[in-house]
């Protein structure tokens, strides 16, 4: 799956949005939290400031790809090239790049962190889980990696375990919208929609929140039948007509998948305690 990403949005119907809604419709609710990009923050000292848009990401990736070809396994080139590949959703290639770097530096926590993120993006969840546990020392936890660990646990169906990672990460980075976004999606996956809405509203209120956070809030509001509110959220990033069309598309998918009836017929689980 991969969130991250190059920025995705509901308006283009990325797999992230569809997967969450389909999972809820199927009542299994496992394995759909976005992993890629969302949880990423430039914590690696060797990585440059990431570009802002798709064209810039392509140029960034081409540049670092040429540097990587000159010196495969180099830490700086590997990390920056892999991040570019992830942004372009070329997840398997990113994992291969970081696998080579990890062979060269098997104890380097920065390399392991990026390798684990790339593995998570490419769907190699069991290996990602193993690598990420070695990606930071206990006395210096990295919230960006902990966020990915949480997303991996959500993908594997351990939602309580995922929320423990998010809670610990939020102690390091209070109010971080990427963390709150993943936590909100985790609640959505277990049909705890009021908690999902509250968490995503908190995330979207942050000045650091991006379109992906608001897309997820609009999705959850739509799942609750709050279509007017969902349109209001979408209007923050698009014109009125596009916002209306965006929510209508979500609404039609919900209707086609029987999400509403699934939610009504299923008792809501108790709120998970951290």
Describe the structure.
The protein has 14 helices and no strands. With 274 residues, it is mainly alpha-helical. The chain folds into two domains: 151 residues, Tetratricopeptide repeat domain (Serine Threonine Protein Phosphatase 5, Tetratricopeptide repeat); 95 residues, Tetratricopeptide repeat domain (Serine Threonine Protein Phosphatase 5, Tetratricopeptide repeat, Alpha Horseshoe). The chain is globular, with a radius of gyration of 18 Å. The N terminus and C terminus are likely disordered.
How do the strands and helices of this protein lay out in sequence?
Elements: H1 15-26, H2 54-70, H3 75-87, H4 91-104, H5 109-121, H6 125-132, H7 143-156, H8 159-172, H9 177-189, H10 193-204, H11 211-223, H12 227-234, H13 240-257, H14 259-265
């Amino acid at each position: 799956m991969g969130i991250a990403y190059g920025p995705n949005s509901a308006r283009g119907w990325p797999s992230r949005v569809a997967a969450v809604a389909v999972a809820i419709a199927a009542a299994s609710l496992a394995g759909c939290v976005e992993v890629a990009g969302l949880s990423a923050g430039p914590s690696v000292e060797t990585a440059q400031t990431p570009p802002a848009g798709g064209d810039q990401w392509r140029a960034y990736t081409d540049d670092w790809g040429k540097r990587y070809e000159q010196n495969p396994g180099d830490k700086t080139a590997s990390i920056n090239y892999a991040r570019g590949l992830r942004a372009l959703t070329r997840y398997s290639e990113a994992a291969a790049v970081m696998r080579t770097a990890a062979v060269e530096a098997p104890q380097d926590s920065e390399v392991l962190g990026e390798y684990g993120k790339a593995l998570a993006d490419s769907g190699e969840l069991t290996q990602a889980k193993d690598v990420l546990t070695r990606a930071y020392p206990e006395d210096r936890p990295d919230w960006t990696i902990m966020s990915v660990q949480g997303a991996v646990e959500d993908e594997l169906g351990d939602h309580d375990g995922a929320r423990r990672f998010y809670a610990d990460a939020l102690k390091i980075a209070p109010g971080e919208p990427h963390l709150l976004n993943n936590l909100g999606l985790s609640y959505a996956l277990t049909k705890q929609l009021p908690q999902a809405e509250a968490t995503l509203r908190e995330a979207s209120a942050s000045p650091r929140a991006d379109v992906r956070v608001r897309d997820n809030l609009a999705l959850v509001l739509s799942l609750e039948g709050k279509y007017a509110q969902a349109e209001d959220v979408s209007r923050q990033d698009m014109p009125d007509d596009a916002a209306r069309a965006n929510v209508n598309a979500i609404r039609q998918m919900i209707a086609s998948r029987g999400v509403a009836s699934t939610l009504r017929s299923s008792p809501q689980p108790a709120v998970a305690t951290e």
